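Box 3.1 A note on notation
Throughout this textbook, protein chains are presented in two layers. The first layer is the amino acid sequence; the second is a token string describing backbone geometry. Keep the layers aligned when reading.
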Amino acid sequence: MLKVDHVTKYYDKLKAVDDLSFEVKDGEIFGLLGVNGAGKTTTFRMITGLLDMTKGNITFNDKKIDYSVTDKIGFLTEERSLLTKLTVLEQAKLYGGLKGLTNEEIEKRLDKLLKKLEIEDYKNKKIKELSKGNQQKVQLIMSIINEPKLLILDEPFSGLDPINIELFKELIMDLKNKGTSIIFSSHRMDHVEYFCDSLVILVKGKTVLKGNLKQIKEDYRKKNIVVEGNIDIDKISKIKGVNKVEENKGTYTINIDDISVNEKVFKEVAKGNNITKYELEDASLNEIFIEKVGESYEK
């Protein structure tokens, strides 16, 4: 288990991370979210031992993270970090060697991962000859070739098409099911909702929202009602507690303050014609993220 305990990081007078605490259990995918400059990269670098913290403690399985632990950590950075003049195999031998693996172990694991990501033919190709998407696949392979117990994924789906995103998803879920602790960061809230059990949202280094994702959505005061059919948008928009009504290809999303408004909306919708769907759903993580980050910047 990774434990980040009251961690603060200053760059001179700039407080990049402000009293941050969270835990990532074995086999858990934890979301670390925020806009650019929120403190995510600084946090990743402190976790991997690349940066010293100003205050606080970071431990993995109750041990301080040092060179005896980093061999069990994988880090897929948002920036491309491959040596493009090397072949995929050469890159794997370089990175795997730094993690204490033998060439035999590296090649065996590389072959297995190349097959899973459907790029077996690229083993001896130079990285610069690969497409952006295939370079991202290689970058993921490099981050997990040491079979990490702790894995940091920063924007892992960059440059991938939908088919390859699904391949990545399968591989990430395999790691989770094998007990790997995973920190997941993305600006795509739908991906965060798919993967993450718990999360933290940072603004200017400070935590503005933290907890179990399911509970966060249940506790969030705004809800959406999804309706399909012919309804009077003007009348529904005027109901007290209705924030907005949006239409997309015949489906209406009615955003309300809280559950108490649902009954009033239902009575009005029932006056419409050909109503084939009426569903009360939680607000999306995207809506929650925008509101919490916006509130913090307004303070």
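The mean pLDDT is 94. The two ends are 34 Å apart (CA to CA).
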